[in-house]
Amino acid sequence: MSRDTQLKERWEQLVNILSNQFSQGEDLDLDAIIYLIGVQELGKVHNEYKKDEKLNLMHIAICRLLEPYGFYEFEFFDEDGWPHYKVKEELPPLKAGEQSVLMKEAIVNYFLEREVIS
Q: Which segments of the chain are extended strands (E)?
């Protein structure tokens, strides 16, 4: 099975699992899944978040997802329990489609590590 085909199948499996758990019948999009990962990484799943906090949660998720690729490195948790990352390497210029594939691959790997999908 090609790498692209396997990624597509795993992505669809993951979207189905997460959509069934967190959505009312509609498939979650990439941004919604990134947000969920941010909430998971923060560890405060039952809180309600303001708009700027939601953006910060997505930033946390992106840093965490791209950490294994060498782009970010975890630094510390602040006094409120929010993780902070530093940039290790700037992301290369990517086209929109390439960004989407990179994020989907990183998300799939994140959930493979947690044995949510196989």
A: 72-77, 83-87
